[in-house]
Write a structure and sequence with these properties.
- The strands form 2 sheets. An 8-stranded parallel barrel has the order 1-2-3-4-5-6-7-8, surrounded by 4 helices. It has a two-stranded antiparallel ribbon with strand order 9-10.
- The protein starts with a strand and ends in a 7-residue tail after the last helix.
- The chain has helices at about 15-20, 40-50, 75-80, 95-115, 130, 135-140, 150-155, 165-180, 195-210, 225-230, 235-250, 265-280; strands at about 5-10, 25-30, 60-65, 85-90, 120-125, 145-150, 185-190, 215, 260, 265.
- It is globular.
- The chain has about 290 residues and is of the alpha/beta class.
- It has 2 domains: about 5-230, TIM Barrel (Alpha-Beta Barrel), CATH 3.20.20.60; about 235-280, no CATH class.
């Protein structure tokens, strides 16, 4: 999921357009993008759309619900846990117990609505406690498919500048390591200044260098930028293919380490090459045999 495009849950006229666009996922938002007095209306709109739209667009469908400590959480799940939903984006979980409670609430909603395919969880890391316990959150339940950074919610209450690169780097690295410990993906959050394309690209490139799989987009103009930033380059693909080919030869010779283009390669480098090739294969970027 290189790109995830947010769409307000109160704007159904945008759903089909987003679904037909270039983003890898559509993320319908019932939280920040919907005013308090329209929460009930929005969840009804989203639930009806999920029940009606065919699940054949080849795109991941995500809904960000309201946080568990709000009066909207249970009603959100009752409305949106439908066969058309793939991932529930959970804002502000504070503990592993929160994650397990959310998973149990999902199970109840699936059973009530006759949903056969379990809905996965994407957890937002948006508070100091969640950042400290990010690995425990990620490993709390098998439904968890990834961690997502929420820098605005994390930084603003603490007076930390959103564009302070040292702070951004530290948080991104901590979240990526926590996700890696749990064996799930890490995703970068939103970049609010839509007019600053260069800033968006710089942050997306930083996230990719730190091992993130993709980034949230709050405007369609950011989608192509995210897709390009998280796309393996031709040089990366070529090197990964060399590593893979050399690994086969090394295995036949009983070698644990080998050389590729003057660099020593062993299993961790092979794992990275395999990950690059998996993304390239999914995107149709591998050369024909």
């Amino acid at each position: 999921m290189r790109s995830k495009l947010f769409v307000p849950g109160s704007r159904p006229e945008l759903f089909a357009k987003a679904l037909a666009g270039a983003a890898d996922a559509i993320s319908i938002d019932l939280e920040d993008a919907v005013a308090e007095d329209r929460k009930q209306e929005a969840r009804g709109i989203v639930g009806e759309w999920l029940r009606a739209h065919p699940d054949d667009a080849g795109k991941l469908v995500i809904v960000r619900v309201n946080a568990m400590d709000t009066p909207h959480f249970e009603a959100d799940l009752e409305a949106v846990v439908q066969d058309g939903l793939h991932v529930l984006n959970l804002p502000k979980p504070e503990s592993a117990d929160d994650v397990r409670a959310a998973s149990e609430a999902l199970r109840r909603a699936e059973r009530a609505n006759g949903v056969a395919q379990p809905v996965r969880l994407l957890l937002n890391v948006e508070t100091p406690r969640a950042l400290r316990d990010a690995a425990a959150l990620a490993a709390a339940d098998p439904r968890v498919m990834g961690l997502q950074v929420g820098l605005g919610d994390l930084f603003e209450p603490l007076g930390i500048a959103r564009r302070e690169i040292a702070a951004v780097q530290q948080v991104l690295l901590a979240v990526r390591l926590a996700a890696g410990e749990a064996g799930v993906a890490a995703y970068d959050g939103a970049f609010a200044n839509v007019a600053d394309s260069a800033g968006f690209v710089a942050e997306a490139q930083l996230a990719r260098r730190l091992g993130f799989a993709g980034k949230s987009c709050i405007h369609p103009s950011q989608v192509a930028l995210a897709n390009e930033a998280f796309r393996p380059t031709e040089a990366e693909i070529a090197h990964a293919l060399k590593v893979q080919d050399a690994a086969s030869a090394a295995e036949a010779q009983g070698l644990g380490a080998w050389m590729v283009d003057g660099r020593m390669i062993d299993r961790p480098f092979l794992q990275r090459a395999q990950a690059v090739l998996a993304v390239a294969r999914r995107l149709g970027l591998l050369p024909r045999p």
